[in-house]
């Protein structure tokens, strides 16, 4: 059986995918480059050679997650350029729990100046994109992102999405209120 050799770019993508999984489980401080290397099936020195260290690998994983959200929003806006369409698309992302949990770890690790700068840039791009794609004003975009953050937290706690725990009344109430508030027009609007 012959093995196909991956290019450095393909191997880098493979490592970022492994990093998303590893960092989603253990966060920035709890994950080593060796953990990522093992998950990707490569040596730890190879990870260092491609990324230079854990910090750059973590940032690459966060940037990958943000780029995925941006692409999902762009695709949704092609169908219908409004917040409801983007919200429905984000609901589909809830199945990608590792991606969303990684973002939460990115926010938590933002006290590190380099990580914080990268995470803020990613979040800023998403905010600007939401406004650009939908024409939402600052308040509408803020409310949209706030609801998305709550959905992200609920998905990370396994309240929503595949493999969700059996719902308790507060869970259904809270999740339902998010969707209701996203679907209702503003009074007088």
UniProtKB/TrEMBL annotation:
Name under which the protein is recorded: TetR family transcriptional regulator
Organism: Plantactinospora endophytica
Source lineage: Bacteria, Bacillati, Actinomycetota, Actinomycetes, Micromonosporales
Domain HTH tetR-type: from-to ranges: 9-69
Keywords, ordered alphabetically: DNA-binding, Transcription, Transcription regulation
InterPro entries (alphabetical): Homeodomain-like_sf, HTH-type_TetR-like_transc_reg, HTH_TetR
DNA-binding region listed in the record: 32-51
Pfam family membership, one: TetR_N
Family annotation (Gene3D superfamilies): Tetracycline Repressor, domain 2
